[in-house]
Amino acid sequence: MNLPFTHDQFLDLFAAYNEAVWPVLIALWTATAGAVVRLYLGSGDASRTVTGLLIFHWAWSGAVYHIIYFRRINPIAVLFGAVFLVQAALLLWRGFGSSGLVFEPQTSKWRVPALLLMLYSLAYPGIGLALGLQVPRFPSFGVPCPTTVFTIGVLLLAPRRQARILGIVPVLWTAIGGSAAFVLRVRADLVLPLAGVLLLAYMLSNPQQQRRAT
After folding, report:
1. Domain for residue 204, yes or no?
2. Which regions in the chain score pLDDT beneath 50?
3. How many domains, in total, are found in the chain?
4. Mind listing the pLDDT tens digit for each residue in 140-165?
5. Could you list the residue range(s) of the whole structural domain that residue 37 is in?
């Protein structure tokens, strides 16, 4: 695959991004970790909090990472940014409309893989460093791949009719972003294809048919 930038340019971009916006990244990581704890403890407003964070994640990744930073080395980043902003708008529409989004880790059969993906997204910066990248030239938080992994974990706890709408862009990004694990040697992204397969399986499954079969 021919890319319009080199591996070093890619990592240099992360360095510029991390050094410029690190206070926001720490705040976003802290808020996301706290929301996961509240969600699994069954806090009453945790679903709305997580939905709000998802909107911020996608809007931030689209506007700040893709459009402001990534387009410096890849012109198609503007298109990526627009798609991420569309996903943020979809989350806003479905999450704060008449019905809203409700995530149910206490009753979902998918609660364990969902939690593992959320924890992986939180550990993503450390995983990148453990696999050979160096500060500040590493993908931290608030960038597309951990955002996608976290979102997939959350959507595994959502009603399927909602996940089938909100899961399209994340599944597409697992294919695009997952290529970085091989082409750009960002090994932390190896989990992306697996996350995409899990979400597709969830979106396409029909629990009513499964119950009839048993």
Report:
1. yes
2. 210-214
3. 1
4. 999 999 999 999 999 999 999 999 99
5. 7-213
